[in-house]
Amino acid sequence: MADPRGFLNHSREGAERRDVTERLKDWQEVYDGGLAKSLEPIIETQASRCMDCGVPFCHSGCPLGNIMPEWNDLVWRGDWRTALDRLHSTNNFPEFTGRLCPAPCETACVVGMNREPVTIRNIEVSIIDKAWADLRVLPVQPEWHSLKTIAVVGSGPSGLAAAQQLTRVGHTVAVFEQDDQIGGLLRFGIPEFKMEKSVIDARIKQMTLEGTIFICNTRIGRDISWADLRDRFDAVIIAIGSRVPRDLDLPGRNLNGIHQAMEYLPQANRSALGEEVKNQIVATGKDVVIIGGGDTGADCLGTALRQGAKSVTQLEIMPIPPTSRPANQPWPTYPMIYRVASAHEEGGERVFSVSTTKFLGDQSVKSLELTEVEMKDGRFQPIEGTTRQISADLVLLAMGFMGPETQVIDELNLETDARGNIARNELFATNQDGVFVCGDAGRGQSLIVWAIAEGRSVAHGVDSYLTGKTSHLPRPIAPTARPLTL
């Protein structure tokens, strides 16, 4: 194990973010020089806090089954090369999860029973970012080719994980993406200040060298029918995500200036990277109201502040969470507690226990009416006498997603579950032969770590379907492989 007294001798310490006034002037990561660099002075000490528990509950907290105690110990000992092997053995893209996952592993950490848990996510991202910097992330090329072809529709984390696993065992994999760049909402929905897109580009370069084929600007169901795709490939993986947004059917919804978050964020991401965006939705000089208190709402908040919004208010129908783990959410469950994202440090106001009742304005929204609510008989009920109006020149709806787009369901006559997601069996196969589904399209809106886990799982199912067994991944061919750089 790591230092037997590490968790007693050292307190939890994380990376320091840049000063708010400085980081609001740009779109770069909120950490000085990047997250991993800011962690360098403390990361080995933090890794020493891992207890290497007899029953490591962090494993059960992580959908990927990451082997945290092993790579924590290896980092403490300075064996970064072996730590990378341990990390990659369960996670294709630790640089994504190390920045974006809410770290359910940490809430299940045994140290966290009576102390602050180990900084597992920070250690994870340090391992992979150091590997990129040291040119140790290599393409893993297959030892043979199966002559089987697979189409992956969607290039988010689930589709990418499935594609990489299947390419590495010798299948020919083509990833279809309707946008002009690979990454899905990972690229266009996540602001640059949370994850710079060069991180995605490096992985796409690796996957291209491994043999994965990427085809952009191609919408299945429009440019190629789903039936034709099924005929042309031995297997099809649906990884289109859950992209039907939840809406608010309220008076005034048709006013100008009310937009879904995923109309606003992709435009902002493109603009931040220097692209020209026509008719861009911008928050500059406006009173912005964000309806939805989750991560997407926080992304909108940080983006609006960087665009120079006059004010930003984030509304949440749920009551304000407690600051510590409530009694009905005991360790090692993931607790619903009050969390402060980097965007919340930068400004804006968070308002809890409120519900919007109407949008007001002439042609464009000028304000919205809301009322305070409380839970009664299993429903949110308005509190009499609490109705008020707040100014709003721009309203962003960040209330989550309802399920996958239905075109593929209709065209392939796919079965769905009670929530409208595409139904699948234990091998992630749908009711149509050779058609599989993974990620949010089958699971429903969830975490990035679940998306990668499902991508790896569907790869197992597809490989079994095509070959009658599942293959072992080949090791990197280190002597001949070309190092990759950011």
The helix tally amounts to 20
CATH class of the largest domain: Alpha Beta
Give the radius of gyration: 23 Å
User: Structural class, from helix and strand content?
Assistant: alpha/beta
Largest sheet report: 5 strands, parallel
User: What is the CATH-assigned architecture of the largest domain?
Assistant: 3-Layer(bba) Sandwich
- Give the tally of β-strands: 16
Full CATH superfamily name of the largest domain: FAD/NAD(P)-binding domain
Number of domains: 3
Uncertain segments are 473-486
Distance between the first and last residues' Cα: 33 Å
Which fold name fills CATH's third level, the topology of the largest domain?
FAD/NAD(P)-binding domain
Question: What is the overall shape?
Answer: globular
What helical percentage do the residues reach?
25-40%
Strand percentage, roughly? 15-25%
- Sheet with most strands: strand arrangement: 3-2-1-4-16
In round numbers, the mean pLDDT is 93
Brief overview, please?
The protein is α/β, with parallel strands linked by helices and 486 residues long.
Plain-language structure description:
The protein has 486 residues and is an alpha/beta fold. It has three domains: 6-133, Alpha-helical ferredoxin (Fumarate Reductase Iron-sulfur Protein, Chain B, domain 2); 149-243 and 402-467, FAD/NAD(P)-binding domain (3-Layer(bba) Sandwich), CATH 3.50.50; 247-399, 3-Layer(bba) Sandwich (FAD/NAD(P)-binding domain). The protein is 33% helix and 15% strand. It is built from 20 helices and 16 strands. The strands form four sheets. Strands 3-2-1-4-16 form a five-stranded parallel β-sheet, with helices on both faces. Strand 10 and strand 11 (365-376) form a beta hairpin. Helix 6 packs across helix 10, helix 8 (94-100) packs across helix 10 (120-133) and helix 15 packs across helix 16 (295-306). Residues 473-486 have low confidence and may be disordered.
